[in-house]
Amino acid sequence: MIRYQGTLYRPPSEAHSLILQATLGCSYNECTFCGMYRDRRFRVRPLAELEVEIEWLRTQVGEPVRKVFLADGDALVAKASFLRALLVRLRAAFPDLRRVSCYASPQSLQVRSVEEMRELKELGLTLYYLGIESGHDAVLTRLLKGVDAAEMIRVARKAGEAGVALSTMILLGAGGRELSLAHARESARVVNAIRPRFLSTLLMTPVEGTPLFEEARRGEYTPLDDLQATRELRELVAGLELEGTIFRSNHASNALPLEGTLPRDKPRLLAELDDVLGRPEPSAFVPRWLRGL
User: What is the spatial distance between Cα 191 and Cα 54, in angstroms, rounded to a whole number?
Assistant: First the structure.
């Protein structure tokens, strides 16, 4: 049987995917805002354990498996030989498999070569989820992302060169109130340079047990209110110059759900944001209690 260890996290778009915990925790685990994996040490699970779980799933899942998500936070950092063997076993067990995906930190993209990513893509690992968070160097330093904007662009482009699709995320409010618009503009610049297949935003919310939570408690970080977050989102969207990128700002934390394809829907998205900013009434936003805030 399958044995998940600790709290399991996955991107919203993987809601109907089979989740296989190929690694435990996150190999980097330094980001100040993230509390997902602070309760466990990173390790790659033995392939033999995963083979047993794959075989059990093969016999127990009653419908075709088309998507698999490799948890936990940084499966891409595992040795290429391990990932190759795992992908071969997944393809053998699930003949209808169309896509395997995983989170990818900038650090894991640094260690994976384009050739390795291309080979893994041919075996089915076709989508990486990359948290850009911000394109502003001061914000990235504050968040302890471990890379600056130039390095974020460089490593993300490696995935593009390998033919792997990127689903990227920007954190609204990552720069606090003082750097809000600069954070939005620089984030748009970095996203434009990366040209991801998917782009999403969510509102940065201090989580208890993280350094960011303590910064907020001491008054060193001030979260955005809904109107400020909407202004920041408008600045981000205005700066985006993309071709065929699917945009989503409909995470549970977002005050104003938006979605569209860029550049086709950019005028509509800006019009919707301008409409809300022109009449900033509380009823224009999703109530905070519905967002768990």
Answer: 36
pLDDT at 290: 59
Q: How far apart are CA 93 and CA 28, in angstroms?
A: 31
Alpha helices in the chain (DSSP H): 47-60, 80-93, 106-111, 114-122, 137-142, 149-161, 180-194, 211-217, 226-239, 266-278
Residue type, 24: L
Structure tokens belonging to residue 239: 């700066």
Phi, psi (degrees; rounded to nearest 5) at 88:
-60, -45
CATH placement of domain 12-291: 3.20.20.70
Domain boundaries, the chain: 12-291
DSSP 151: H
Q: Answer positive or negative: Cα dihedral of 169, 175, 176, 180.
A: negative
Q: Is the pTM above the cut of 0.85? A: yes
Structure tokens at 125: 């690992």
Which residues, in sequence order, are CB contacts of 192 under 8 Å at separation 6+? Answer: 239, 240, 241, 242
pLDDT at 255: 76
